[in-house]
Amino acid sequence: xxxxxxxxxxxxxxxxxxxxxxxxxxxxxxxxxxxxxxxxxxxxxxxxxxxxxxxxxxxxxxxxxxxxxxxxxxxxxxxxxxxxxxxxxxxxxxxx
Length: 96
Description:
The chain is 56% helix and 18% strand. It has 5 helices and 3 strands. The protein has helices at residues 9-19, 23-38, 41-46, 64-72, 74-85; strands at residues 47-53, 56-61, 92-95. A 3-stranded mixed beta sheet has the order 1-2-3. The chain is elongated and about 60 Å long.
């Protein structure tokens, strides 16, 4: 019997991403793109910084009223972005 070494391209790329720890950077890029696409121009205008540290997303917002609104919507933001990523990657969203 011959043993098959065939694997899907998706499996190989996933293994490489994990091996070289590229997933964090790729997810950060996807989150930045999704944030700009999913949020309105007002939120984009007041978003000073988006930073991903491990599995926590940090949002720096320069408007107190908007900061409070986003603070209460953290779970919804996390859910929407995880759906966009296609996996339960984000564990927490912190609004500063």
